[in-house]
Amino acid sequence: MLKDELIQHCAPTLAGIKTGNAFSIQGIKEGMLEEIRSINRALTKKGLRLVPLKETPKYSLIYLYRPARLKRDLNSPEAVSILSGKGYQCDNADHCLAQLVKHLREDEEFPHEIGLFLGYPPHDVKCFMKNPCKGVKCVGCWKAYGNQEEAKRIFRKYSRCTDTYRKEAFHGKTLEELAVVE
Length: 182
Description:
The chain has 182 residues and is α+β, with helices and mostly antiparallel strands. Helix content is 53%, strand content 14%. A hairpin with a 3-residue loop joins strand 2 and strand 3. Helix 1 packs across helix 8 (148-170). The longest helix has 23 residues, at 148-170. The relative contact order is 0.17.
């Protein structure tokens, strides 16, 4: 069940072309934590990690990411500025992820800095947080406020990747076979 959702929603991360993807599953799924542990046993050797970010009676928010990429992304000066401005201690990526989980679970307002954990350009995350409607140049996986052509190129790349992974899974490739080592 969860493996199908990962292929559907996380193909660019599985392919090694994106830092992370988050998706929600409706309702509480029996045995989901054990399934996450099983997937992690298979995917950690490929540089991937799967974690539940938030669980409610109505849904679970799941995050697949590449820890090495996340560390690199969150070390950029613009990402550090955004996160420290939101009260994060930016000493390491794991600590930042733990703080994101805390914000997701405890804050009334959604933490839009999550875009940094998904590999979105820090400039676009910052602009969205400031005013989500002002200055949008195009919309795909995220709202792009900066380089429109680059964003469109990335959106197409992610879409092609997802289409390819769906077809490969349909033809019998397993999640472990689809996940690339980075």
